[in-house]
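Sequence of Macro domain-containing protein (Streptomyces ficellus).
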Amino acid sequence: MPAHPPHLPEHGSVLAEVRKVRRAGVVRLRELHVPELARIARKFTASAATTPAPAPVTAPAPVDAGGGVERLLRAAVSRVGGGTLQTAAEYSLGLAQGTRDWPAADRRRRAAQVYGVSVERFRKHHELMVLGQIAEQLLGLAGQHGEAGRDAGGGGAAGSAAQGTPLAVAAVHRTHRTVRARGAATLRVHVHSVDLLRDVDVVVSPTNTYFALPATYKSSVSATLRRAGADLDPTGGLVTDRVHDELRGWAARHGTPGRAVLPGTVAPTSAGALAAQGIRRIYHLAVAQPRPGTNDYDVQPADVTRGVARVFALLAEESARFDPPLRSVCLPLVGAGRGGLTPLESFGALWPAVEAELARGAEQGARGGAGPWEVHLVVRAHARADLIERLLADDGGTG
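Predicted 3D structure, token representation.
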């Protein structure tokens, strides 16, 4: 029988462990529970024993129990290819010369200086990108050295089983997950197309700064919501393009037809035919700026953060006008489609606004005001849901 494929870690689990190392530093590797990094390190070490030694990195690696993981991290950082990204990664993880025993806050401050930004901005945006890139390189090393690691361990599935290495099995995924973030906040993560949502008051639809909705046959969130919100005849023919028509009406009333609005602008419409599914409003969030002369878009993380904050401001303004009041909102990973942001960058941009609003809503709700809000996230890929779940579970501090 053919051997089962070896265990391959998920990006989210590797990233979560890299973030643990960032907080603790390499001097505390012995104390950390980082099973995925340890597993990749074993493969990496076994492969290195049968191949010529790689070029030396910035500093010698120790030979203690955590040495294998540290050597792996140094190899991953060296694969980035230099520049500010590699320098920031070395400072973040304590791999730069003389930084092994630096506190996490000092390492973060020095990494922020590499990019010339404030510590807070680095924490919210650049750090997720830097550590995400290191996780990508670690996964590359896992795939590159997997075969050599299995050969060194006895070969095939039998060798893996003898060493206790888990074999890959199909994950049992859920289409809905309840995730607890830092504090008491909980979020609902939906893993399906946005038009399958039920009983969520407001759905956020990312769009371009011209509020020009894509054709209904396309697959983006805004195209899907336009298609699902339309009135159709029994044969599926279009009767009324309700979401599109209402958005054009909003643009006409605000004097913006044919010209771009500022990124972060939010335009509300009804949900059209989606009202039958309990969806009451669609908030069109303009974040994608068309690139002249191309079919491409640019999305800036700061515009995502600002736009999501405006979504909550509009939700607070409109809530009491409805009976019952609006209470729930669902966000996709804004800008992670044709906008060019990675899922990690998108989440890193929208989460600060969500987190701040959850805290503010809890306080206002305790005083009888609007909030607390019920926040949902919707993604199509289980890998993205895994990433969100691990990022929220690992959001344990800023040190």
